[in-house]
Write a structure and sequence with these properties.
76% helix; single chain; mainly alpha; MetI-like fold; 1% strand; 311 residues
Length: 311
């Protein structure tokens, strides 16, 4: 009899509890709604609008006219400067992305074992929150093209060169200078994430590793730290790639706009040229869509690689 009563009462109890569950879900949705609206308005909508404008001829004065894939055909078949900017961007990203990523992690791992962590962490993090313009001004003193530049002065004094090198005017050296500055600036953000991940590792896990035979710091890094920091490693990889593909401020402030022989011309610089100098918004939108797809595809590849190591 009790079992029958329980069976009869259980649906009634479920009906009474259901509104409470829905109420909890609606509260959570209400808290999520502001972010969702902002994400739709400022992220999804601009991407959709850019994709639409990329299929038009639009100069911001006249109404857009449909052009189909003409902008993309011109971009890849007739625009030699875009192909050069694509090459420059990939060269830049292939070097600064992995190098900055590895240096950020190694720096965080080394500094975590030092006494004065806070001071070193601050020194590494400050460049990442400094604007590209300010950092370019500072580095221009080092790479100044006259004999008073720090690097030229040093090389002249030790006899390696007989006359000053035009570091920011010679196309052979411009990209190298920008890569050095970008690596220095990109280390801060990833470094802070990696340092936080290392400092928040489970100490019991580290102690268990020592009991099980881990004796050196390198063994601890290989068997405990790296496997435990997959989220931080993934975040650092994504931000390194997106930051490398979106370089613009440093290149313009170091080499000018446009740079000599377009030696430091990147995709974002090409986008800026057509959007805010020539006001060809349809063509600029096509460049933006290509950059978006590149970033999205490379990000997906990185996520797949780092996730596959967990399986």
């Amino acid at each position: 009899m009790d079992a029958v009563n329980a069976a009869v009462e259980s649906p009634l109890i479920a009906k009474k509890r259901k509104p409470k569950k829905l109420t909890k879900n609606w509260v959570g949705l209400l808290f999520f709604l502001p972010f969702f609206i902002l994400f739709i308005v400022f992220t999804i909508t601009p991407v959709i609008v850019a994709m639409g404008l990329s299929l038009t001829n639009y100069n911001m004065i006249e109404a857009p006219t449909f052009a189909g894939i003409t902008n993309y055909r011109l971009l890849f078949l007739d625009d030699d400067i875009f192909i050069l900017s694509l090459k420059n961007t990939f060269t830049f990203a292939i070097i600064t992305g992995p190098v900055g990523y590895l240096m950020s992690f190694v720096s965080a791992w080394v500094i975590n074992n030092l006494k004065f962590k806070t001071g070193f962490a601050l020194a590494f993090y400050i460049p990442s929150i400094t604007s590209g313009v300010a950092m370019s001004v500072i580095w221009m003193v080092v790479f100044s093209s006259d004999k008073y530049g720090y690097l030229n002065n040093f090389l002249l004094n030790i006899g390696l060169i007989s006359e000053p090198i035009a570091w920011t005017l010679n196309p052979a050296y411009i990209m190298t200078v920008i890569i050095i500055i970008q690596i220095w600036m990109s280390m801060g953000g990833g470094f802070l994430v990696f340092l936080a991940g290392i400092q928040n590792l489970n100490r019991e896990l580290l102690e268990s590793g020592r009991i099980d035979g881990i004796k050196t710091k390198f063994q601890e890094l290989q068997y405990i730290i790296l496997p435990s920091m997959k989220p931080q490693l993934l975040y650092g990889a994504i931000t390194s790639v997106t930051g490398a593909l979106a370089v613009f401020d440093i290149a313009v402030n170091v080499a000018g706009f446009p740079s000599p022989n377009y030696a430091a011309h990147t995709i974002v610089a090409h986008l800026y040229d057509y959007a805010f100098v020539r006001f060809q918004m349809g063509y600029a939108s096509a460049i933006a869509v290509v950059l978006f797809l590149m970033t999205f595809i490379i990000g997906k590849i990185i996520m797949r690689i780092l996730r596959s190591t967990d399986e």
